Amino acid sequence: EVQLVESGGGLVQPGGSLRLSCAASGFTFDDYAMSWVRQVPGKGLEWVSAISWSGDDTYYAESMKGRLSISRDNAKNTMSLQMNSLQSEDTAVYYCKAVRDGLDYWGQGTQVTVSS
């Protein structure tokens, strides 16, 4: 059974940091590119960041560039997203996603709330 389990979300004050993690199982993790996608309340899905299967290539949404760092550990089947200088507009449910050849798997999401 394919599983993607996010963790690390929570409540953080503006300007704070969080590190999200995604643990994968049930598929060949290093065959897949991985990404983070978020859903702001009342809005559609927004792509945040992605990393190639090897980890050599990383990509970030322009609106969040400079505040994010994505990484993966293929030996542990995990991916992480370090988020810094968080603002209220970053409040969302963050999902990890595995993608390959048009096939994708999604996690259940983790809530990030940025509020004082």
Explain how this protein is built.
The protein is mainly β. The chain is built from no helices and 11 strands. Strands 2, 4, 5, 6, 9, 10 and 11 form a 7-stranded mixed sheet that branches. Strands 1-3-8-7 form a 4-stranded antiparallel sheet, with no helix packed on it. A hairpin with a 6-residue loop joins strand 5 and strand 6. The N and C termini lie far apart (39 Å).
* Main beta sheet: 7 strands, mixed
Order of helices and strands: EEEEEEEEEEE
Tally of helical runs? 0
List unreliable stretches of 5+ residues: none
- Structural class based on helices, strands and sheet pairing: mainly beta
Strand coverage percent: over 45%
Report the principal-axis shape: globular
Cα Rg: 13 Å
Mean of residue pLDDT?
Answer: 96
Q: What is the number of E strands?
A: 11
Helix content: under 10%
What's the arrangement of secondary structure elements?
Elements: E1 3-7, E2 10-12, E3 18-25, E4 33-39, E5 45-51, E6 58-60, E7 68-73, E8 78-83, E9 92-100, E10 103-106, E11 110-114
Parallel strand pairs: 2-11
Antiparallel strand pairs: 1-3, 3-8, 4-5, 4-9, 5-6, 7-8, 9-10, 9-11
